[in-house]
């Protein structure tokens, strides 16, 4: 006879209510669930708006009709073949950058520890620009996969170099990588890599320099299915690693001694998680170019919206998608010219970075 499963509500004064079903208990966070649902709904709305926006505007109802299998042949061509790849690329790139930023900031306990601030994005940019400038008019498989693979290699090599240079003894005497040291080395590496990109542009032909310059501003104009596939695969890798290591990320926020007491191998887990974040940021950069400040801003915005002690993974991915897709909508509807989405996100992210610096300075002053 199968034993009955007992279901009960557990509520203690000052503690979140929990639902216990047999041996499984779940803490209920209705506000957090509501905010995540609202973010997901906003992503869906902006995604449809991105498809509707263009030289010929398509009503939102018609976009939804086409996406659900309706519409005329011409409408299906415009929505599915012409605009859908761009909107999907913006969605995937934003989610990958937001998730990569949440991972690095959680591990290093620093809101400035984002891939674009640490030089990872610049390393990916140097690799991709090298293919554009030195590869000339490469076609075929090299033309399709050359830039993404070079960007991935550049991001991974940059991350490995920064990690090795940041390795040393902490103030407590432990050997490893500290957040402040890694951020400082990353800022210096970022400047060095940007100088390398500028040098490559001086040696490029006019046509290659124009292509590279458009790409360096984070443009979705040339987004297609060939760049969407690698970015989607990279996002899948980051999602699997991040969600599978959610408990480890929570433990890493508690400090080295507490984390070791919980049985977590700090350096091994840091390397795995940072490696996954580098893959996501590098391939996302290869797909559309460096989209500035998304990986920096998205986790901090999501943390404030969800009121969590650390950077939330799902919330950061959704917020990153909102920033990129919303930036693409704004670049084509608010401004008179079709601006690269990286310019729009930089216009938003610059003031947000100043806000974070002022806030950190105030905390340090009060301490």
UniProtKB/TrEMBL annotation:
Could you tell me where this protein is found in the cell?
A: Cell membrane
User: Per its record, how is this protein called by name?
Assistant: Iron complex transport system permease protein
Q: Top-down, what is the taxonomic lineage of the species of origin?
A: Bacteria, Bacillati, Actinomycetota, Actinomycetes, Mycobacteriales
Q: Which UniProt keywords apply?
A: Cell membrane, Membrane, Transmembrane, Transmembrane helix, Transport
Report whether Cell membrane shows up as a keyword of the record.
yes
| Species the sequence originates in | Nocardia tenerifensis
Q: Which domain of life is it from?
A: Bacteria
Q: Kindly list the GO molecular function terms attached to this UniProt entry.
A: transmembrane transporter activity
Q: Which family does it belong to?
A: Belongs to the binding-protein-dependent transport system permease family. FecCD subfamily.
Which PANTHER family does the record match to this protein? FERRIC ENTEROBACTIN TRANSPORT SYSTEM PERMEASE PROTEIN (PTHR30472), FERRIC ENTEROBACTIN TRANSPORT SYSTEM PERMEASE PROTEIN FEPG (PTHR30472:SF24)
Gene Ontology biological process terms from the UniProt entry: siderophore-iron import into cell
Segments crossing the lipid bilayer: 31-52, 87-108, 120-142, 149-168, 180-201, 228-252, 272-298, 339-358
Q: Which Pfam families match?
A: FecCD
Q: What membrane topology was assigned to this protein in its record?
A: Multi-pass membrane protein
Alphabetical GO CC annotations of the entry are:
plasma membrane
């Amino acid at each position: 006879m199968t034993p009955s499963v007992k279901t009960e509500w557990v509520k203690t004064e000052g503690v979140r209510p929990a639902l216990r079903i047999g041996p499984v208990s779940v803490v209920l966070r209705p506000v957090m669930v509501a905010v995540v649902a609202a973010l997901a709904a906003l992503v869906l709305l902006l995604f449809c708006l991105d498809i509707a926006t263009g030289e010929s505007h398509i009503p939102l109802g018609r976009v939804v009709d086409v996406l659900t299998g309706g519409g005329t042949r011409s409408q299906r061509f415009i929505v599915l073949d012409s605009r859908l790849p761009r909107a999907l690329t913006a969605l995937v790139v934003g989610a990958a950058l937001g998730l990569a930023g949440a991972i690095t900031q959680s591990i290093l306990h620093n809101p400035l520890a984002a891939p674009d601030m640490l030089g990872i994005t610049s390393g990916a940019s140097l690799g991709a620009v090298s293919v554009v400038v030195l590869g000339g008019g490469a076609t075929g498989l090299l033309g399709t996969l050359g830039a993404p693979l070079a960007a991935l290699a550049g991001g991974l090599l940059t991350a490995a170099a920064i990690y090795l240079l940041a390795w040393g003894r902490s103030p407590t005497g432990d050997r490893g990588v500290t957040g402040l040291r890694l951020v400082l080395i990353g800022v210096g590496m970022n400047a060095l890599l940007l100088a390398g990109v500028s040098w490559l542009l001086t040696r490029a032909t006019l046509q290659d320099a124009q292509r590279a310059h458009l790409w360096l501003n984070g443009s979705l104009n040339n987004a297609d299915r060939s760049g969407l596939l690698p970015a989607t695969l990279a996002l899948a890798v980051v999602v699997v690693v991040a969600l599978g290591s959610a408990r480890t990320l929570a433990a890493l926020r508690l400090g080295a001694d507490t984390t070791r007491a919980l049985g977590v191998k700090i350096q091994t887990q840091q390397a795995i998680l940072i490696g996954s974040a580098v893959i996501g940021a590098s391939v996302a950069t290869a797909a559309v170019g460096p989209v500035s400040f998304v990986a920096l801003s998205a986790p901090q915005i999501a943390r404030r919206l969800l009121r969590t002690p650390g950077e939330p993974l799902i919330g950061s991915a959704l917020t990153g998608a909102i920033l990129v897709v919303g930036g693409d909508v704004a670049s084509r509807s608010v401004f008179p010219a079709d601006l690269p989405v990286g310019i729009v996100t930089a216009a938003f992210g610059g003031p947000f970075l100043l806000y974070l610096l002022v806030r950190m300075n105030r905390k340090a002053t009060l301490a």
